[in-house]
């Protein structure tokens, strides 16, 4: 097959260059390559990509009619710069998105934070997880990291805050051995809170706050000027 290897899902510019150094430029060459050669050039994921090129993809398929992303956002009546308030809103948004993922039996690999400042400029930040998840605490950790990163760079007040989950896959399969005990606890907590929410409404469920001091405040000098 003469199709260029860059057309294969998962092969970006860097991977394409490494494959070229191995004289692998087409799908056909990639399919026929020795597994050890691909592992040496691309790491452990090289053999997974080879299986994709051969049509051996056993990943769960999300049908086209299913949502491509699930999100939640809030537009404030006034600009909000209080970190605790923003954190409370983010916790609630992540909880709702995670609950909807579990209800739809989906997991997400990408978490996106959407912010709109008082000048009505909208920005997004995204993070891709190593493994798809629908666990609230794992999604919240990524979303909080994005909020902290933005807040560290800019303390501007927000008119809108939103959180979304994308790159959706059908839920299922075994949990990885690493961290399984902790993730089991997270799953049990999520199931308990989901049950409470289904019986008494989402307002009956409140998770903890986003912990930590305001990064914008931490980045200020004693005289109130932001450090460079």
> Could you state the CATH homologous superfamily of the largest domain?
DNA polymerase, Y-family, little finger domain
The fraction of residues assigned to DSSP E strands is 15-25%
CATH class of the largest domain: Alpha Beta
Shape-level CATH architecture of the largest domain? 2-Layer Sandwich
Secondary-structure class: alpha+beta
What percent of residues adopt helix (DSSP H or I)?
Answer: 40-55%
What would you say this structure looks like, in words?
- With 228 residues, this protein is of the alpha+beta class.
- The protein has eight helices and four strands; from the N terminus they run ααααβαββαβαα.
- It has a four-stranded antiparallel β-sheet, with helices on one face.
- Strand 2 (106-117) and strand 3 form a beta hairpin.
- Helix 3 crosses helix 4 (45-53) and helix 5 (83-103) packs antiparallel against helix 6 (136-153).
- The longest helix is centred in the middle third of the chain and has 21 residues, at 83-103.
- The N and C termini lie far apart (54 Å).
């Amino acid at each position: 097959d003469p199709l260029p290897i860059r057309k294969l899902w998962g092969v970006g510019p860097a991977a394409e260059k490494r494959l070229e150094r191995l004289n692998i430029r087409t799908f056909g060459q990639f399919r026929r390559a020795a597994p050890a050669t691909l592992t040496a050039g691309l790491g452990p994921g090289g053999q997974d990509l080879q299986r994709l090129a051969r049509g051996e993809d056993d990943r769960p398929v999300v049908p086209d009619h299913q949502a491509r992303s699930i999100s939640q956002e809030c537009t404030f009546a006034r600009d909000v710069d209080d970190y605790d308030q923003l954190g409370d809103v983010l916790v609630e948004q992540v909880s709702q998105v995670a609950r909807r993922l579990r209800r739809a039996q989906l997991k997400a690999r990408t978490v996106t934070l959407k912010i709109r400042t008082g000048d009505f400029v909208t920005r997004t930040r995204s993070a891709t997880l190593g493994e798809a998840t629908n666990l609230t605490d794992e999604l919240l950790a990524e979303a909080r990291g994005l909020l902290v990163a933005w807040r560290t760079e800019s303390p501007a007040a927000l008119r809108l805050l939103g959180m979304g989950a994308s790159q959706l896959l059908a839920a299922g399969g075994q949990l990885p051995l690493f961290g399984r005990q902790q993730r089991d606890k997270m799953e049990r907590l999520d199931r308990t809170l989901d049950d409470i929410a289904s019986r008494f409404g989402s307002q009956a469920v409140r998770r903890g706050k986003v912990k930590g001091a305001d990064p914008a405040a931490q980045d200020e000098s004693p005289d109130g000027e932001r450090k460079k």
